[in-house]
TrEMBL record:
This is PAS domain S-box-containing protein/diguanylate cyclase (GGDEF) domain-containing protein. Its cofactor is Mg(2+). CDD domains: EAL (cd01948), GGDEF (cd01949), PAS (cd00130), PDC1_DGC_like (cd12914), PDC2_DGC_like (cd12915). The chain crosses the membrane at residues 21-43. The keyword Transmembrane helix applies. Residues 772-1026 form the EAL domain. Residues 625-763 form the GGDEF domain. Residues 348-418, 466-514 form the PAS domain. It comes from the Bacteria. PANTHER family: BIOFILM ARCHITECTURE MAINTENANCE PROTEIN MBAA, DIGUANYLATE CYCLASE DGCP.
Length: 1027
């Protein structure tokens, strides 16, 4: 306890020192923050006062700059006036100096700012002057302003630096302009001399506060004027030797603010410097620093006094706090002394409490009246109420009635007999039933009289559960699973009825025997070594095993074998559970048959076939051998189904599977992939690729012969042929999908070659397929990337005049350049992209019609747009056309849609309905490629056509081909009889045009009149031709 007390004292002192240090630190930080804030306030006020002074000085400088600029503006006007005086003519005026002097004096008298006006000739000699000290002929060629003009012929005016006049004993500025004669050559100078006192007089008009200065200096920092004024002897000295001032005059900045000591009066001022635009002068306005900062020292002292007062007040508060802290520490020390004594008593009680808490049972102590005077429970949930609520209460008020009645009887017997009693009871706690066992012992006072009882209560719920589980385990032993228990040596100790039903042995027949009596002989020693090794290592083994029944039948069973060990880990028993899985194995075989074999033919299905192809590829890569993959498709099998029925078709497939199997080796795999498609995997071909191909071809011919043999079905004999595609398998790193694709492409080629034949895979097939796929991918990007172009081919009348154009789609590929329409048009139609691209073509053509209708040369031109059958039969074709016409506002009468004969094969009524709908809008229709397809005279009268186009295949051989000539003449006559216009395309020679014109064809299109061109080139060619 002494050690504990010392530790507590040390901790208390350490805490007290920490609090004192914290208080002093906070005071110091607060003092620093206060000083920092005051310093910032002073600095901000200092900056604001300097800024206000700069604004005042800037305003003054603007005013002075305006005055100086006005002075030089008046002087410039005077010089201009003198120049104008000398103009009529200039040489004659200069020849009469006395007249010029009078004029100059008159001008000077009107300008009080100008001290002298003078005119100099080209040599710098005075021709005339308004002052007497510069008589005519006086040489001023050495003056800097004259030398400036002679040095720079392009100089028109000049302001000289401040110079000293020996005649007047004063400083001046010369403002000079160039004179030119009638030819524009140098004819002399006109100069105005200004005295700096002019600026002094202007500055004198300003009201100034004490200490303020305003000065005007030139580029060399020479003082021209200043207020307050200075002695003349100081006029030539520079303002200061400050580097900042020199940098300002040398730099490009127009204004600056700086703090300098004046060299004229030795006073420190805040200066504002401002250069005059267009003039070599700078205005400098200064204000004394003591005036600018007037009042700032007082604020400094005021803030310092406030800071000092705050510091003193804080020091007083800190001292007061430290005193209270010392008194508090003394009080704590006294309290600690008292607590030490109390702690010693509590520790003794705690040791006793710890002893009681180490008891896992519940302890209840009752007085002689049955009231609770003490209780202990490790698990508080076992108590029906809080401990504080129970103490002092009678057990009748706490325990449930049934338990209270039991305890009352035990309490009375213990009180009466003076010996311990036991009883059991149950309670429902948290909706769970708990079982308890209680031992009630009597308590005696010092005089030996009864003073109460002590009840030790134990929770026996888990024990009850264990007992129940043992009963359940005994019951479970007789379940549907066979069970066998052996000792550590493997002798059978017990089996259940299910074991007897599975094996056929009764319990009496197997007791004391070894389970080896059930062995079927199918498993070798290695199998049993693995089994017992797993039991030894993990304590159990589970798996499938074949055993023999008493009747000798071998059957599969699922066995679970577990080792049972005692408390010290020694092996005591083996427990085996077994079940007969004969029916399950049969079901698995059936499932496997359904999963990997075709239910109709019994052949391998696609899944099993792909697995075997993958295994074969792995073998070929290791051994560098070859195999072959054959895809078989029955030609016209659909006709058998359609004519004889699906039952006959199924019979044919079954017979075909049987016939094909006879032609193959056992090592080969025949599969039905679906429908009438079969596949063969041929193994063990020659290592030489060419010989392997020959062997694969021989197998294929045998299969073709088997397919073509007549087959007798229930419905009658049937003959059928097949097509076979062959892909050779080698050691190349190819995937299963790639091999299947190669065989499929070969089959496609065989069917294209006329069926009832075979074809080998050619890499060119794959190259064409890849190229087609790449082209299709690029097609999807062509419209968003703006790669489509419209070219226009002229259509002319019999006189060669352009009547319209045909819009032809061109693809400007980003990498391949222009792509032939023969490559991309079929892809557009097969991928249905023709709908969007065709809509773009139509909208672009309509926009072009709108652009042409404002030009009289092109307003009558028609545009013919080709419409694909895929595009035409789209559900939204008519609404799309109407939307495009509404959106573009194109002249509908100038639009013509070209359709082909294939459009009308099939749904002629639908085609007629759509054409009539568009016809009502004003759109015309032209039948393209007439005579090349499904030509029928019926739909010419049935459909609302306006024009027939003679295909270029007929025109190309005119007039030499009599057959083509007859066809063309018939077409023209037919069109005229039906009231349809005719246009011939592909006209390339004048002989063809004349031949067609002689037979009343009045419209032509072809290279004779022009190739398809972009719209700009078309307009440039044909509009120019019209002009």
């Amino acid at each position: 306890m002494t050690d504990v007390s010392c530790i507590a004292d040390t901790t208390s002192e350490r805490t007290s020192r920490r609090l004192r240090l914290t208080a002093i630190t906070l005071y110091g930080l607060a003092l620093i923050v206060m000083l920092a804030v005051f310093a910032w306030l002073l600095a901000d006020q200092y900056r604001r006062e300097l800024q206000a002074a700069d604004e005042h000085n800037s305003t003054r400088a603007d005013l002075v700059a305006q005055w100086v600029s006005t002075t030089f503006t008046l002087s410039d006007q005077a010089l201009v006036g003198v120049g104008q005086l000398l103009e009529p003519p200039l040489d004659a005026a200069l020849a009469a100096p006395y007249r010029l002097e009078d004029a100059l004096k008159a001008r000077r008298d009107k300008l009080p700012l100008v001290d002298e006006l003078a005119v100099l000739d080209t040599r710098g000699r005075v021709k005339a002057s308004s002052s007497s000290y510069h008589p005519p002929g006086f040489d001023l060629s050495r003056m800097t302003y004259f030398q400036a003009f002679t040095a720079s012929p392009a100089l028109e005016q000049h302001i000289s630096p401040l110079y000293w006049s020996a005649f007047t004993r004063d400083y001046y500025i010369a403002y000079t302009r160039r004179l030119r004669n009638a030819n524009g050559d140098f004819a002399g100078l006109v100069t105005a001399r200004l005295a700096p006192r002019v600026f002094d007089d202007s500055l004198a008009q300003l009201s100034m506060r004490p200490g303020e200065t305003i000065a005007l200096v030139d580029e060399d920092q020479q003082l021209l004027a200043r207020r307050p004024g200075v002695d003349d002897a100081d006029a030539l000295q520079t303002l200061s030797d400050s580097d900042r001032l020199d940098a300002f005059f040398a730099g490009a900045a127009l204004t600056a603010s700086m703090r300098l000591t004046s060299p004229l009066d030795g006073v420190e001022r805040l200066y504002w410097l401002q250069k005059l635009p267009g003039l070599p002068y700078t205005v400098i306005v200064g204000d004394r620093m003591d005036t600018v900062l007037d009042g700032w020292p007082q604020r400094l002292w005021a803030l310092l006094l406030i800071a000092a007062a705050g510091a003193l007040l804080g020091a007083w508060g800190l001292r007061h706090y430290l005193n209270r802290l010392r008194l508090s520490q003394q009080l704590v020390d006294r309290i600690d002394e008292r607590e030490t004594a109390r702690s010693q008593a509590q520790m003794r009680e705690a040791r006793l409490e710890a002893l009681v808490r180490s008891i896992q049972d519940m302890i209840f102590v009752f007085d002689e009246n049955g009231c609770f005077i003490y209780l202990h429970a490790v698990n508080k949930q076992w108590l029906l109420r809080d401990k504080e609520a129970v103490l002092g209460c009678h057990y009748v008020d706490v325990l449930p009635p049934r338990v209270s009645h039991q305890f009352a009887e035990v309490f009375e017997r213990v009180k009466r007999e003076g010996s311990a009693e036991e009883f059991c009871y149950t309670l429902w706690l948290d909706q769970h039933q708990r079982f308890f066992h209680a031992i009630v012992s009597p308590l005696a006072a010092r005089d030996g009289h009864f003073s109460g009882v002590l009840a030790a209560v134990r929770d026996v719920t888990q024990s009850r559960i264990n007992e129940a589980e043992l009963r359940i385990a005994a019951t479970a032993f007789h379940t549907h699973l066979g069970m066998m228990i052996t000792d550590a040596r493997g002798c059978i100790l017990k089996v259940n009825a299910t074991f007897s039903r599975i094996t056929g042995y009764t319990e009496d027949e197997v007791l004391g025997q070894n389970p080896r009596m059930l062995s079927s002989g199918r498993h070798d020693a290695a199998f049993y070594k693995t089994l017992w090794g797993s039991v030894a290592r993990t304590g159990s083994w589970e798996g499938e095993i074949w055993n023999r029944r008493k009747c000798g039948e071998v059957y599969p069973e699922w066995l679970t074998l577990s080792a049972v060990r005692g408390d010290s880990g020694e092996l005591t028993h083996y427990v085996a559970t077994l079940s007969d899985i004969t029916e399950r194995k049969a079901a698995e075989r059936e499932i496997q048959q359904l999963a990997f074999y075709d239910p109709l033919t019994g052949l391998a299905n696609r899944r099993l076939f792909l697995d075997r192809v993958g295994d074969a590829l792995k073998t070929y890569r290791r051994s560098a051998s070859h195999g072959a993959l054959l895809f078989i498709d029955l030609d016209n099998f659909k006709q058998v189904n359609d004519t004889l029925g699906h039952y006959a078709g199924d019979q044919l497939l079954q017979r075909m599977a049987s016939e094909l199997s006879r032609e193959l080796r056992d090592t080969d795999t025949l599969a039905r992939l679906g429908g009438d498609e079969f596949a063969v995997l041929v193994h063990q071909l020659d290592d030489n690729l060419e010989r392997a191909a020959e062997q694969a071809e021989q197998v294929a011919h045998k299969l073709l012969a088997a397919i073509s043999r007549p087959m007798v079905l229930e419905s009658g004999p049937v003959m059928i042929t097949g097509s076979i595609g062959i892909a050779l398998l080698s050691s190349a790193e190819e995937s299963v999908d790639a091999c299947l694709q190669q065989a499929d492409m070969a089959l496609f080629q065989a069917k294209a070659d006329g069926r009832n034949t075979l074809a080998f895979f050619d890499p060119r097939m794959q190259a064409e397929l890849v190229a087609r796929a790449c082209l299709e991918t690029d097609l999807y990007r062509a419209l968003p990337n703006g790669e489509w172009r419209l070219f226009y081919q002229p259509q002319v009348d019999g006189n060669g005049a352009l009547t319209g154009v045909e819009a032809l789609l061109r693809w400007a590929h980003a990498e391949r350049g222009m792509v032939s329409p023969g490559e991309f048009i079929p892809l557009l139609e097969s991928t249905r992209m023709i709908n969007d691209v065709g809509a773009w073509v139509l909208e672009t053509a309509c926009e072009q019609l709108v652009a042409w209708q404002d030009n009289p040369h092109t307003a009558a031109w028609d545009i013919a747009v080709n419409i694909s059958p895929v595009q035409f039969y789209a559900d939204d074709f008519v609404p799309r056309v109407k939307a495009i016409l509404a959106r573009t506002g194109a002249p509908i009468a100038r639009l013509k849609l070209e359709v082909t004969e294939t459009l009308f094969v099939g749904a002629k009524d639908d085609a007629r309905h759509k054409m009539q709908h568009l016809k009502h809008l004003g759109i015309r229709f032209s039948l393209d490629d007439f005579g090349t397809g499904y030509s029928s005279l019926a739909y010419l009268a049935y459909l609302p056509l306006d024009q027939l186009k003679i295909d270029q295949s007929f025109v190309r051989e005119l007039p030499e081909s009599a057959a083509n000539g007859a066809i063309v003449e018939s077409t023209i006559a037919l069109a005229q009889s039906l009231g349809l216009a005719v246009i011939a395309e592909g006209v390339e020679t004048d002989a063809q045009r004349q031949w067609l014109a002689a037979r009343h064809c009045r419209a032509f299109q072809g290279y004779l009149f022009g190739r398809p061109l972009p719209v700009a080139e078309l307009e440039a060619q044909w509009v120019k031709a019209v002009d």
